[in-house]
Amino acid sequence: MTGSIYAMSVSDEYGCTLSELRGLMELRGAEALETLERNYGGVEGLCQRLKTDPVNGISNDQKELEKRRRVFGKNEIPPAASKSFFRLAWEALQDITLVILLGAAIISLGLSFYKPPSSAASHDSSEQEAGWIEGAAILIAVIVVVMVTALNDWSKEKQFRGLQAKIETEHKFSVIRDGQPIDIIVNDLVVGDVARVKYGDLLPSDGILIQSNDLKLDESSLTGESDLIKKSSDHDPVLLSGTHAMEGSGRFIVTAVGVNSQTGIIMSLLGAVKQEKEEKKETSKDGEQNLPNGNGMAVGNGVQKDGKSMPPQEEEDAAKASKSVLQAKLSSLAIQIGYIGSIVAGATVLILVARFCIEKYVVNKQQFEAADLSHFVNHIIIGVTVLVIAVPEGLPLAITLALTYSVKKMMKDNNLVRHLDACETMGNATAICSDKTGTLTTNRMTAVQAFINEEFYKTGHLPKYGDLDALTRDLIIEGISTNSGYNSQVFDSKIQGGPREQIGNKTECGLLGLVMDLGKHYDDIRKLHPEETLFKVYTFNSSRKSMMTVLQMDAGRYRIYAKGASEIILSRCSSVLGRGGAIESFGERQVADLTQRVIEPMASDGLRTIGLAYKDMVPQGEKTRENELEYSGEIDWENEEVIRMGMTAIAIIGIQDPVRTEVPAAIEKCQRAGITVRMVTGDNINTARSIATSCGILKPGADFLALEGKEFNARIRNEDGKVDQAKLDAIWPRLRVLARAQPSDKYVLVKGIIDSKSTKNREVVAVTGDGTNDAPALKKADVGFAMGIAGTDVAKEASDIILTDDNFSSIVKAVMWGRNVYDSIAKFLQFQLTVNVVAVTIAFCGALFIKDSPLKAVQMLWVNLIMDTLASLALATEMPTEDLLERKPYGRTKSLISRTMVKNITGHAVYQLTILFVLMFFAPAIIPNTKDGRDPTGMSTKPTEHFTIIFNAFVLMTLVNEINSRKIHGERNVFKGLFTNPIFCVIWITTLISQVLIVQFGGHWFSTAPLDYIQWGFCIVCGIGSLFWGQVINTIPSSILPKSLSFGRGEVQPTSILLTGDYDTPTNISSAAGLAKSSSIDQGNKRPGQLLWLLGLTRLQTQMRVVKAFQSSAEDSHPSSLTTSTADRLRASYRRLKIAKELEQQKRAGSVRVSSSTKEPTKDTTTMKFV
């Protein structure tokens, strides 16, 4: 009660309540303006009520900020509670194979206590007493498996939360506090803050616009409308969180944050409906009902009964699940292995049961006894255990470990991974399309050359203020100072003689540095022309390639300043300031001359050439200078074509952006690793060519292409203006530089390379981008890299990895980690498949020949634990080395299991099976003190040295083969780098010690009998023999094997059954955009047997929950943060809300009547659901 009274008193102090501000943000356009004016006295009145200075912002005092957070809320959405350890353990227990095993173990345990009189003399007393142990041991083994799975999931979920927190702190927004512009973490925003929005920003809160310059927002995330919405303080001042600033800039006062913002309200509704859906899911039958609930929101599984396909957007979203090349290949492989394992497991049970029944009931003509049940149960246990070994649940665990380990390490290498599968995809990259500015260069712009008043000032000889004509120098200083973003600033270095500090757009900073070099300061000019007094600003974008600012000089007189790419600015000029500031005519001939004399030499020096121009517009009859343009009536400021023509050229400035010192070496590493680096830039072709040569992308004498965007389009398009893939295929292999490129050109190039089938293994393309318009190319690429420093929020949203240092050399580290992940998975595959083949074969042959499996159920579970959990951890934590860059990339269609791996798997399986079969049939004759453990009846459960030797030899050979599996490319030294991986060493030694203890002291629990020194020596020799056998295998060239022996080759078709668990009903917010997930799409095409098998593999889903969480984190991105909400997700959310409301209204009006007998509404979108 006291808290509410306090909140009310503070609300009175601020002059408006939380609910009033929420209500204000629900209004749009004229209605919002009217309410703002009527209730608050305009934006100035609102600022007064919120105790905010519209120019200087609020105080940065922590007490004041905390008070605002208590009254108006924090700018965050409380994250969903993480699952407890016991919940994870319960979910791990849902695995169908474990359930069967548990049931069989319990039955076995129960039957062990039943002693029929007829069997009293059949076994000795010690065996009868130990009869219960096997059932208990299996129960304990299952519990261990469940605990290990749950512990792994729980620890990885903690890591995931930590990564979430790390990414959230990376997102900052500019605000003004105490009159100073500062960047703060978006979660620190409070109501009343004056925030500054610029081109490319993702708005982190709701607000009311104070001042703007040509500000246009993409509100499609909330409204679904694709057109940009123009915002201004006198037209439509309402800004909403989750929307993107696509053009312009402005200042706004924050009015709603967190769950009280419009995005927060939608996210809260999503969470509420998701919870409601989960509650209803328990009562619904197979999720078949897809009817509106009480709130008019459609819930259910989203499958359309009338067989209609999903809308294109939803199909596209659903298809995103199959982006990862490796996961698609592993999924396909897992299904194949699982099929074989199921068949062998079923055959093993059938053979054991059939032999027992035939011998007892047909040959011996005995009657059925209750004790026979224990035999049937034991046979089922053996069969299910074979299935447990065959099911490749270690695959997703290996992926989880390899990827999470890599993500953690990559953060130290300046790679902030947003989409987890981007790690391994990067290992396959064959091409990188890189930006120039900031990625290959330092992004520290400095004006080093200038052409002013017919004088060409070369590097080191820039003019002084007194050297220039009075009019010219005033135009240069005023033009640069006002025709730049006011958030672009340059400060003298705090270190004596150090470079100036640059904040904001680096090109503008380079020009502002020129003003300071002339002995003046841009701030003095900006004080004369505050940002809010600027008459109109045409902000820079990729289509304009320039920026213009209009100043109102006095009554009816306007001055327009322009800056941009030199060729574009000059093409708009009709006059130029010549010697002494004289105005001279300027036509096409002069443009060509200036291009040849000035622009090309500057560009050849690797400089970015910027043109400066101006135009004075005066009322009719008031013209005083020959270059002034007269106008009558009202000027149409929206007609840019007219506004920008007829200008007067002031100067051409050459800005230097030096190549990063480490980039040439990094590019050389890429080229040596078989990765083609291409530069895509908006700069002049000569500048681009010069920088590319400096980097090593272009090499003298090489047959490479450097094209401008226009020529590129002319070469690749047909008569209809459409891209011709065949024409593109003729160009892109030789293309190294694409200059004066539009964002659409980058997208076309990336899509063309990905879709091309002209290369052997298909191309895997990585792209870097920093601008808003780079988003389509970043999304289309296999791996999109956004710049962490210079990148816009929109680009970061579309990316897979954020380069926190904007450095190309960090991409090379991502390649190393990616290849390391791919190789780690391949190492584990080689190891696991060898164990699979051997264990399944020995169990099957044992059932066939000796009526029993030489490997008991508990022993196979121990092998399964080694094979899956421990080996995953050991092989997935290898550190990458430079050696990884010495081989070519795999590409998109390269075999997952190479011929070398097939040779190793087959060779070691043959060796192990030979040893095990020899031991099975001849061990008593070969090894002293070893009695034959084979029981003619197949009924004995007493541990024997014979079968213990088989078990021990198998485990030791498997352990040694784990060392062999560290190398998958035929390397002979399998110990290289072994001691640099302490995790591998600790796990290997721990496993070995555990095996010794199990053999010597396991007894009935593990069906083992203690072995003597000779028996141990024989097992050790068998194990060490694997090392020598590995060397023999390496002498056999892989090339002699037919190519058909490589698996996972070719283009992988999209599948809904990925090892990420995504074939399950989506439960994360980002999946909402998917609506009916691809599992729903493909069900009609899958055979029932395959579906049953896939649904049985729930352990794959359980152990991959972490990977799923990581992947959803990047798409949804973080539930606790508004700032990274993707447009797709919010668009889908808003659309569902809208449709839900319509349905509810129709229901109330009686126009829609829903019953179990009626068909669903025909509108496709009625199947949308909240997840």
From TrEMBL:
First-listed, main subcellular location of the protein, grouped into a coarse class: membrane
Function: Catalyzes the hydrolysis of ATP coupled with the transport of calcium.
Name used for this protein in its record: Calcium-transporting ATPase
Family per similarity comment: Belongs to the cation transport ATPase (P-type) (TC 3.A.3) family. Type IIB subfamily.
Coiled coil: none
Keyword terms of this UniProt record: ATP-binding, Calcium, Calcium transport, Calmodulin-binding, Cell membrane, Copper, Copper transport, Ion transport, Magnesium, Membrane, Metal-binding, Nucleotide-binding, Phosphoprotein, Translocase, Transmembrane, Transmembrane helix, Transport
UniProt region (Disordered), positions on chain: 277-320, 1145-1171
EC annotation from Swiss-Prot or TrEMBL: 7.2.2.10
Biased composition (Polar residues): 1153-1171
An annotated GO BP: copper ion transport
Biased composition (Basic and acidic residues): 277-288
Native source species: Mesorhabditis belari
Membrane topology, record value: Multi-pass membrane protein
